[in-house]
Amino acid sequence: MNKSCRVILPAGLILFSLAASALPARRSAAKAVGTPQTQAASSQAAPPPARDERLWKKAQEIHRKAFVVDGHNDITEIMADTGYDLGTPSVGKYHTDLARLGQSGITGQFFSVYIDRKYATSGGSARRALDLIDVIYRAAEKYPNQLTMAYSTADIARAKKQKKVGALLGIEGGHAIENSLPALRNFYRLGVRYMTLTHNNTNDWADSCCDEAKHNGLSDFGKEVVREMNRLGMFVDVSHVSDKTMSDVLDVSTAPVIASHSSARALANHKRNIPDELLRRIAKNGGVVMVNFYPAFIDERVRVAGLERDARLKAQRDALREQFKNEPERLEEELKKLNAANPLPVTPLSVLIDHLDHIAKVAGVEHVGLGSDFDGVPSLPVGMEDVAHLSNITYELLRRGYSERDVMKILGGNLMRAFAEVERVARVSTRTVSGEGSTLRLEPAKK
Which domain holds residue 242? Predict the structure, then answer.
């Protein structure tokens, strides 16, 4: 394990850089909607144009050359809770397995360490994070020829050279550190390289996009969390935070930030998405917005239809929750059936590309990337059914006139550039992980 933040950017990556220079609770909502195949029962999308075989061949060549980095995959939670083995084929059930990761061209995959908001009230946030981190280490140890732990840009580059998937870790939900900077440092030691400051719940030091604001953005302790993440060499992730929290992060951070799985609010008016003025600020910061693939976040038609369906089905859902309150698996099954009988519109892949295109135009092509949310959402656009379909994005970007250089930036070059700068800031600012770190703790708010 390379625990040091003093990573020298490999020559191959330098050459590449020069060449390529709200839902109240996501998991409960996702489980209520159904499997990755549910959306196929919805109204039909217009058929895509006939594929240009010459352009498709070029897309495959570029995809193979590129550093492809996905900012957010939630298969981790499924692995921990069901015992799912990543080496087991799961087409039609999950979005991710080792075979399809191999087909995807992914060089670096951030696996989400998602901490449900219930742990913020019941306790055990840090323990839950440790459990999820462990399942990725177990997979990497079991399948060393396909998966390797990655902690740095150098490790991602090494994984590509070895034709393996570099497994990275990102905590989703800042309550995981239980208000302790020493806990944050220990997560860094375990390989965590980003932390989403909130999930859909406001915590004791940062306001969420989808919950009551309590701190007017970041509290003083929240600002200290950002500074410590900069010092360590950990991305500050602004997906899920409120606009004011995001603005405060950009005021404080001396290193590039990421939005690991967020899209453009100008195209889909969801609180999870980022308004243009903050897209421009992220660009000035040197950061990267990694676009989420979930139709309810990127397709305004689906977002509105979903709200209408929620209102229409509320009484039936409440009745099911009461009827099966002691049978969670049966409740999930019945909710899936209800939603399947009331499908939402289908989202074409072009809508996803629209978000990449919009962010590239507003923030600059150097500040957009991919943040799928695979296996954290119940449906995906047509043509993006699982990880194996990622090269369709490469093809569609070429079809819209993006150059090879810019396509390679979007696929992962931008993330690699920002990650290298995060590492540089950490090398400048720190000599030891704990010795120079703050011991500040925040007492949890009384419930």
Answer: 11-20+54-299+348-429
The total number of structural domains that make up the chain: 2
Q: Residue 37 domain-assigned?
A: no
Q: Quick check: 376 and 114 in contact, CB under 8 A? A: yes
Could you read off the pLDDT of 117-167 as tens digits, one per residue? 999 999 999 999 999 999 999 999 999 999 999 999 999 999 999 999 999
209 and 282 together in one domain: yes
Q: Are 179 and 442 in contact (CB under 8 A)?
A: yes
Taking the mean position of all CA atoms in its chain, how far away is CA 216?
Answer: 25
CA–CA dist 111, 179 (Å, integer): 23
The 3-class SS string of 406-435 reads HHHHHHHHHHHHHHHHHHHHHHHHCCCCCC
Q: What is the pLDDT of residue 439?
A: 79
Answer whether residue 28 is part of any domain. no
> What are the catalytic residues?
72, 74, 172, 199, 240, 261, 373
Give, in order, the Cα–Cα distances in Å from 39 to each of 32, 72, 201. 13, 21, 28
Using the CB atoms, write b or e for 371-402: b if 16+ within 10 Å.
Answer: bbbbbbbbbbbbbbbbbbbbbbbbbbbbbeeb
Mark whether 379 and 420 lie in a shared domain.
Answer: yes
Looking at the fold, whether 337 and 194 belong to one and the same domain comes out as no
Q: Global pTM?
A: 0.89
